[in-house]
C-alpha cells in the first residue's frame, strides 16, 4: 500500500447522464413498433437506422424510467483511506465487488458490494507495479484484473485480492499502444487502438505469454461521412462481442463486430444537436457529443448525449472562442433508450445545472446493475437499480 488521496472539495461537472436499464422482456408492444415512423436501410452490409422526431414510447406525462440509488462507493462518511480522488476506470466482478483506479492517486481500490473498502494498492510511477498514463481496466472473468498501463503500451496483471502478478509490453506483439481492453474469456484479450489514423482491433491469446491471434481495421462503408477526427475524439467502448463508437459530429452511434465489420449506424437527426467543430485535421472546439452506448443484458442500448442549446452557428461560435471571447453555454443533456435494433424508445432530458450529475457510465454488472463514476458532490462510484415503465405495461426492473 502507498499514499492515500487527500479529501477534495466537491467539484461540479457538466452532467453526462449515462445509465443502464435492465428488463426481463423486450418492453415494447408490437403495436407500438408498427407505428414507428423511422427507416431501416441496408448499406453495403450494414443497417442504417434513422429515427423520427418522436420516440416509439409516447410521453403520457409520467417518466418512462427512474433511477434508484442503491450504494455509493467512496462515500463522504467513509474512512480516509476509502475516499477517492476520482474514479475514471471501474470494473465489477460477478460477486458485485467493485475495482476502481483512482487516477489522482494512481492507486487501485477494491470495494465489497456493501461499499466496504477491501484493499488499496499500487502508486504513481513507471515501475512494474506502478500506474502512469492508465488507459483502461478489465476483469478477466476469473481471478485477475488487467490494467492497460503506461499510456496504453503495457498490460499489468493483478489478482482480485490486490497482489501484483506480472507485466507485458505490447511491443512484444508489435502493438504500439492501445486505447481499451476487454476479455473474451480468461485467456483471450481484445484490444482496440485508434491512435494511428485508423481504428484497429487486436486479439491476444495465451496468457501469460501473450501472442497476437488476429488484427483487423474497423472500417466503415460510410467512411467519407465520419470525419477522421471523430475517431480520435469520439467515445469508443467494447460492449460484449461488439465495438461501439459515439460521435462528436452527429447525433448517432455506430456498431462494429469484433472483426471490424460495420453492423449498424443509429441516427437521430432531428434533435437540434450542435456538433463539434474542426478545420482540416485540427479539432478546435467541442460542443455536442453522444457517448458510446451501453449494451444492456436484454439487448437494448442506452446512451447519454449533451450539446449547447444556445449555439446556432457552431463554426462562428468556435472562431469567437479561439479569438478569446468567453462563451457562456447552456447545456442540454439527454439520457436515451433504444431497442436492440436501434429504434429510439424514450429519453430523459434536463438543462444543466438544474439536475445533479449522475456521472458517466462506468460498468454494468452481470446482474444488470448500473455503476457510474461521478464527481458531484464528491468523487465516488454509484450503483443504480433502474425501473422501466413501458407504455401500457406494469413497471419492470432488474430482479
Task: Please describe the structure with a list of short key phrases separated by commas or semicolons.
399 residues; 3 helices; mainly beta; 6-stranded mixed sheet; globular; Neuraminidase; disordered N terminus; single chain; 5-stranded antiparallel sheet
What does this structure look like?
It contains three helices and 30 strands. It is mainly beta and 399 residues long.
Range of helix content = under 10%
Radius of gyration: 21 Å
Mean of all residue-level pLDDT scores: 81
Describe the sheet with the most strands. Answer: 6 strands, mixed
* Intertermini distance: 37 Å
Tally of structural domains: 1
**What is the fold-level CATH name, i.e. the topology?**
Neuraminidase
CATH superfamily: TolB, C-terminal domain
Class by SSE composition: mainly beta
The general outline is globular
The low-confidence parts are: 1-29
Number of helical stretches of at least 4 residues: 3
**What is the annotated CATH architecture?**
6 Propeller
Spatial strand sequence of the major β-sheet: 1-2-19-18-17-16
CATH class: Mainly Beta
How large a portion of the residues is in β-strands, by DSSP E? Answer: 35-45%
β-strand number: 30
Amino acid at each position: 500500500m502507498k499514499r492515500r488521496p487527500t479529501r477534495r472539495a466537491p467539484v461540479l461537472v457538466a452532467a453526462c447522464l449515462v445509465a443502464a436499464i435492465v428488463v426481463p422482456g423486450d418492453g415494447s408492444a408490437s403495436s407500438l413498433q408498427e407505428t414507428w415512423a423511422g427507416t431501416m436501410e441496408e448499406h453495403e452490409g450494414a443497417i442504417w437506422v434513422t429515427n423520427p422526431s418522436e420516440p416509439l414510447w409516447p410521453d403520457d406525462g409520467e417518466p418512462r424510467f427512474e433511477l434508484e440509488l442503491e450504494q455509493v462507493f467512496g462515500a463522504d462518511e467513509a474512512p480516509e483511506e476509502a475516499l477517492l480522488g476520482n474514479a475514471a476506470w471501474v470494473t465489477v466482478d460477478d460477486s458485485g465487488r467493485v475495482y476502481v483506479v483512482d487516477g489522482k492517486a494512481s492507486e487501485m481500490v477494491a470495494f465489497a458490494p456493501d461499499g466496504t473498502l477491501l484493499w488499496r494498492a499500487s502508486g504513481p510511477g513507471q515501475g512494474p507495479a506502478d500506474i502512469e498514463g492508465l488507459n483502461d481496466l478489465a476483469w478477466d472473468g476469473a481471478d485477475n484484473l488487467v490494467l492497460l498501463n503506461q499510456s496504453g503500451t503495457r498490460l499489468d496483471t493483478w489478482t482480485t485480492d490486490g497482489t501484483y502478478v506480472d507485466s507485458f509490453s505490447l511491443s512484444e506483439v508489435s502493438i504500439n499502444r492501445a486505447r481499451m481492453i476487454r476479455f473474451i474469456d480468461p485467456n483471450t484479450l481484445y484490444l482496440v487502438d485508434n491512435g494511428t489514423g485508423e481504428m484497429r482491433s487486436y486479439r491476444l491469446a495465451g496468457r501469460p505469454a501473450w501472442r497476437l491471434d488476429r488484427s483487423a481495421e474497423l472500417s466503415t462503408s460510410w467512411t467519407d461521412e465520419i470525419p477522421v477526427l471523430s475517431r480520435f475524439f469520439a467515445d469508443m467502448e467494447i460492449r460484449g462481442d461488439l465495438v461501439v463508437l459515439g460521435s462528436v459530429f452527429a447525433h448517432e452511434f455506430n456498431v462494429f463486430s469484433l472483426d471490424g465489420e460495420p453492423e449498424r449506424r443509429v441516427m437521430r437527426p432531428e434533435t437540434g444537436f450542435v456538433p463539434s467543430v474542426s478545420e482540416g485535421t485540427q479539432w478546435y472546439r467541442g460542443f455536442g457529443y453522444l457517448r458510446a452506448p451501453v449494451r444492456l443484458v436484454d439487448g437494448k442500448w442506452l446512451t447519454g448525449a449533451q450539446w449547447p442549446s444556445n449555439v446556432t452557428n457552431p463554426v462562428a461560435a468556435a472562431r469567437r472562442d479561439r479569438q478569446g471571447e468567453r462563451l457562456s453555454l447552456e447545456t442540454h443533456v439527454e439520457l436515451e433508450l433504444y431497442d436492440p435494433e436501434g429504434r429510439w424508445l424514450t429519453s430523459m432530458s434536463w438543462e444543466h445545472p438544474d439536475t445533479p450529475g449522475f456521472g458517466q457510465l462506468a460498468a454494468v454488472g452481470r446482474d444488470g446493475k448500473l455503476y457510474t463514476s461521478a464527481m458531484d458532490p464528491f468523487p465516488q462510484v454509484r450503483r443504480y437499480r433502474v425501473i422501466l415503465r413501458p407504455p401500457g405495461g406494469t413497471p419492470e426492473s432488474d430482479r
